[in-house]
From TrEMBL:
It is a single-pass type I membrane protein. The lineage of its organism: Eukaryota, Viridiplantae, Streptophyta, Embryophyta, Tracheophyta. Its main location: membrane. PANTHER family: LRR RECEPTOR-LIKE KINASE, RECEPTOR LIKE PROTEIN 30-LIKE. It comes from Salix brachista. InterPro entries: LRR_dom_sf, RLP23-like. It is found in: Membrane. Keywords: Glycoprotein, Membrane, Receptor, Signal, Transmembrane, Transmembrane helix. This is Leucine-rich repeat-containing N-terminal plant-type domain-containing protein. GO terms for cellular component: membrane. Gene3D superfamilies: Ribonuclease Inhibitor. The keyword Repeat does not apply.
Amino acid sequence: MHAEDKFVYKRRLAFVVCEAEGALLRMRQLWVWMLLMALAFVTDRCHCCLQEERSGLLGIKAWFGHAGAGSYWLQGWDKEDLNCCDWDWVWCDSTTNRVIQLDISAVNYYAREDLYLNASLFLPFKELEFLNLSGNRLAGGLKNQGSLLSILFN
């Protein structure tokens, strides 16, 4: 082999090696990208409210239902839906996924009887900052549950 041929051969070999290394790098980048996308999808699917708080919301719905209040307003609160942060009248903190606001006003608006509030229904909500129960014809019972209400609003 002549010196010129050796030089051309080495250049072609170097070019092929660089192409292979480039392809391998692109393949690695593709795998990293696919892994990040998969993790983002899985992470996004897991942004659900806490089980304790979801159970608490379902307990509130059941309490209004047993009390004869119209469950129409809370029919979107479904035990099959794991993300109660997407439910009507429920707002969650975007970082902790804890319920921070509940606006369940006028659920009992058209009922014929007043409701006696069971404040312990709200104990699962450790970061609740806003609670609207207006228009529910709530009566009595609050005097006996002062300690529970102080926990709720502290």
